[in-house]
């Protein structure tokens, strides 16, 4: 059985279309690699790319893309709503078919080693690849962001897994790891009050006593006149999308705020949408076998 891996690199550029196309270009037309999707957000000033394919081919293409981003992005000038610590902020590998999590971890380590050797960018291993418990959570690694990372790396406890304890002067630091599929999910609120979004995010995220497998925070979207509760659902099989959505709606009512809608950044497993559809439609005995397209993909 062929081994298939997914990779979702996040780059700190969401506004300059010319730069975005150059960053994505190494991922196009490569044997063994398929570019599935890329989305740029001007407010977040962030590019999320999804590629899938044979592990070695995906690794090589992503490393090339990281090199382009390193040359084009100066983190000293970067501003955006999303937390970030590097030009290539994070690179997760997700085993999809014929590949174990252990193999994805090994692939992430190989990639991290090459990124340091080729581009002198220090790398932290995170999630399933983490070498210490406190490095499993990306938010913990990223705390301090680019501006505070030079000082953070002076602490011996925060020596990078690959590279020196010194950030790349323009590309910062990168996190690379292996994980299961994650859903980047944002919910829009009809208010400009960021503190309300912050209070709701605190209620629903696991680290504050909320829903398991949910990471959440507040984000302002000035050009739309709204704020968002931005989330990463790290295991949609344990905490469903609809559960997070309903809890945000419930908490928003406390402040007289309505939910305007929501958005998915990047790709989402069909099973997660099917689970949500079954909940809202009240479907009985519904499963993936009843979805027409699921049979076509086997």
From TrEMBL:
Residue ranges constituting the Formiminotransferase C-terminal subdomain domain according to the UniProt record: 181-295
Highest taxon above the source species: Bacteria
Signal peptide positions on this chain: none
One example GO MF annotation: folic acid binding
Gene Ontology biological process: L-histidine catabolic process to glutamate and formamide; L-histidine catabolic process to glutamate and formate
Pathway(s) where this gene product acts: Amino-acid degradation; L-histidine degradation into L-glutamate; L-glutamate from N-formimidoyl-L-glutamate (transferase route): step 1/1
EC number: 2.1.2.5
Formiminotransferase N-terminal subdomain domain ranges (all copies): 3-180
Keywords: Cytoplasm, Folate-binding, Histidine metabolism, Transferase
PANTHER family listed in its UniProt record: FORMIMINOTRANSFERASE-CYCLODEAMINASE
UniProt protein name: glutamate formimidoyltransferase
Taxonomic path: Bacteria, Bacillati, Bacillota, Clostridia, Peptostreptococcales
């Amino acid at each position: 059985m062929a081994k298939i891996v997914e990779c979702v690199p996040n780059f700190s550029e969401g506004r300059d279309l010319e730069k975005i196309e150059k960053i994505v270009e190494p991922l196009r037309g490569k044997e063994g690699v398929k570019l599935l999707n890329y989305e740029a957000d001007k407010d977040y000033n962030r590019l999320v790319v999804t590629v899938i394919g044979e592990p070695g081919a995906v690794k090589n293409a992503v490393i090339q893309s990281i090199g382009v981003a390193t040359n084009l992005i100066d983190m000293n000038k970067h501003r955006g709503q999303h937390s970030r610590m590097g030009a290539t902020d994070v690179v997760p590998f997700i085993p999809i078919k014929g590949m174990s999590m252990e193999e994805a971890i090994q692939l992430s380590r190989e990639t991290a080693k090459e990124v340091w050797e080729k581009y002198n960018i220090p790398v932290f291993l995170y999630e399933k690849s983490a070498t210490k418990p406190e490095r499993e959570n990306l938010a913990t690694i990223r705390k301090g962001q680019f501006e505070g990372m030079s000082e953070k790396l002076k602490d011996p406890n925060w020596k990078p897994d690959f590279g020196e304890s010194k950030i790349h002067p323009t590309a910062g630091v990168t996190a690379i790891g292996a994980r299961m599929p994650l859903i980047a999910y944002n919910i829009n609120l009809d208010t400009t009050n960021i503190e309300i979004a912050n209070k709701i995010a605190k209620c629903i995220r696991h680290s504050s006593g909320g829903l398991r497998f949910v990471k959440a925070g507040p984000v302002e979207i000035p050009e739309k006149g709204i704020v968002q509760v931005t989330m990463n659902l790290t295991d949609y099989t344990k905490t469903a999308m609809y559960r997070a959505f309903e809890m945000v709606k419930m908490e928003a009512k406390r402040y007289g705020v309505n939910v305007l809608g929501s958005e998915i950044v990047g790709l989402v497993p069909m099973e997660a949408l099917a689970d949500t559809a079954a909940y809202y439609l009240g479907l009985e005995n519904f499963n993936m076998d009843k979805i027409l397209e699921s049979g076509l993909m086997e």
